[in-house]
Amino acid sequence: MCKSPLHPLLTALPKYEHHVHLEGTLSPSLLFTLAAKNNISLPPSSPSPSSPDPPDPAFLSPATLSARYTSFSSLSDFLHYYYLAFRVLLTPADFESLTYSYLSHAARSANLRHAEVFFDPQGHTSRGVPISHVVDGFLAAAARIKAEFGLTATLTPCLLRDFSVEDGLSCLKEMISSGFYRDGKLIGLGLCGTEISKPPAMWKPIFDLAKHHGIHRTAHAGEEGPAAYVRAAVEEFGLERVDHGVRAAEEEEVVGFLVERGVMLTMCPVSNVALKGFASLGETPVRRFLDRGVRFSLNSDDPAYFGGYLQDVYCAVEEAFGLSAGEWETIARNAVEGSWCSQERKAELLDEVEKVLRGWTEKGE
Ligand code: HPA
Ligand code: ZN
Questions:
Q1: Ligand nearest to the CA of 79
Q2: pLDDT tens, position by position, 151-185
Q3: Buried b (16+ CB within 10 A) or exposed e, 106-135
Q4: Per UniProt, where does Zn(2+) bind (predicted)?
Q5: Peptide bond into 52 cis (omega under 30)
Q6: Per the annotation, does 19 bind a ligand?
Q7: Which atom of ligand 1 is nearest to the CA of 302?
Q8: Closest ligand (CA of 222)
Q9: How far apart are CA 345 and CA 110, in angstroms?
Q10: Report field, pTM of the whole predicted structure over 0.85
Q11: Is 220 annotated as ligand-binding?
């Protein structure tokens, strides 16, 4: 909870999330529960039995793991723990529990109304877990969430830059030929993992294939990479959105390019601070982007790892920047406009924004 007079507005404001990794919502306590259910040893055993690494003490308990999650030194330090945790996710029921626990929490605590959730298909197929297990579990939970909260949720695979381009291409081909896109079970394509030494041009054939099939496209860019990386990703992949994109702020010319193209950035300021991209939230370019007319939404990224669930992100931004009610309205409207949902659903979501803001103004606040 923030101390701002706008706090009641911030809790009531309908939220739209476009950058949350399903696997990044796996809390230490659910991780330990699923490990016990699926008979998976924690800490994970050493890759080399002949010269075993000492066991990582972070895996002693949910509390020690939570404590370790407060001190990531970089994106790669975080990704090490993030990928290790995938091992406990095996069955459709596991993915259903994970999805239900995040979305129900976000609906109650943040008034989340529409979520476009990422998952990492290669992180599962490489362990022998089929993509259909993720999709089936997610859709089962999403149907319950829609019935209980009226919250709509869709699923988008994020290919991993840590795997080869060939692997990514064959993963996308498999998802297309399995009919996941035709049936509306998946709606877009993303790309995540480290940007270092992975220039956008490498991944162009993958995004060309997605474009050919009319698949929505986004990619993580400008989290670690420079502004030029963001511009190249937008141009090479024909992106509608950019995930993070914060380093674009370092080049005025790239900021202008994003405004001109109407590209929406899915900002995750709490994640950026947790991964040491910025020393404090006030240094992230929220104010700069608002003033320059760059469209963005605010997101949690990997909330179980960064200690910032969606409502916390909104409160942290308000505490750092002291935005006005009108600026929050702009953020909410841009987030709806940048969503990958039907025009009818957008109209409903915009109505909800309007009602909350009207109520706030009528109270004279
Ligand atoms: N950046 C890159 N890869 C990721 C992230 C991120 O923020 N979260 C999960 N995978
Ligand atoms: Zn991300």
A1: 1
A2: 999 999 999 999 999 999 999 999 999 999 999 99
A3: bbeebbbbbbbbbbbbbbbbeeebebebbb
A4: 19, 21, 220, 301
A5: no
A6: yes
A7: 8
A8: 1
A9: 19
A10: yes
A11: yes
